[in-house]
Amino acid sequence: MRIIQASLEHLDMITPLFVKYREFYGELPFPDSSRAFLEKRLRRKESVIYLALADNDDSKILGFCQLYPSFSSLSLKRVWILNDIYVAEDARRMLVADHLMRTAKKMAKETQAVRMRVSTSSNNDVAQKVYESIGFREDAEFKNYVLPISQD
Predict the structure, then answer these.
(1) Domains recognised in the chain with CATH numbers
(2) How far apart are CA 106 and CA 118, in angstroms?
(3) Is 147 helix (H, G, I), strand (E, B) or coil?
(4) What is residue 44's DSSP assignment?
(5) CA separation (Å) from 109 to 7, 49, 112, 115, 139?
(6) What is the pLDDT along the chain (152 residues), one digit of tens a residue?
(7) How far apart are CA 39 and CA 66, in angstroms?
(8) Kind and range of the H or E element at 25?
(9) N or C terminus of the chain: which is more exposed, having fewer CB within 10 Å?
(10) What's the whole-model pTM score?
C-alpha cells in the first residue's frame, strides 16, 4: 500500500469513504454536504488528509485519516488532532490504520509538534488498541469536556 497526502484532485475518491465513516458513528450520509465539507478543508488548507491506496490500483482507497492543527499555549508548540480515521471494510486487518498513523506521526515530528491527540468512542475497543499500539496513551492529566452549541 502507498500513503499519500490528499489534494483536491482526490476529493471524489475520499468522499464515499468519508460518508461511510460518518455512518459508522451514526450520522446520516449527506454525500453532497460531506464532499463540500472536505473540499473546504482542503481548499483552505485547514486539515491534512492522508490516503492509503492499494499498491496495484491507485483508484482504490483502503482508508484515510484527517488531522487538524491546533496549538498548546503551555508548551508554545503545535498540536495535531487526529480527528478522523477510517479503513474500508475489505481492507481491515491489513495494518492500514497503522500505516496512516505512522505517516501522521512523521508529519507531526516534521512540523515540530509537541503531541498528537485522538478521541474515540469509549466502547471502540479495536480503535483503542490500535492507538495504544502506535504509542498513544490515555490522558491521565486532563479530563476532557464537550460543550454542545445549539444552532437555534
Answers:
(1) 2-134 (3.40.630.30)
(2) 16
(3) coil
(4) T
(5) 21, 16, 5, 9, 20
(6) 999 999 999 999 999 999 999 999 999 999 999 999 999 999 999 999 999 999 888 788 999 999 999 999 999 999 999 999 999 999 988 999 999 999 999 999 999 999 999 988 888 898 899 899 989 998 888 888 888 898 87
(7) 13
(8) none
(9) C
(10) 0.91
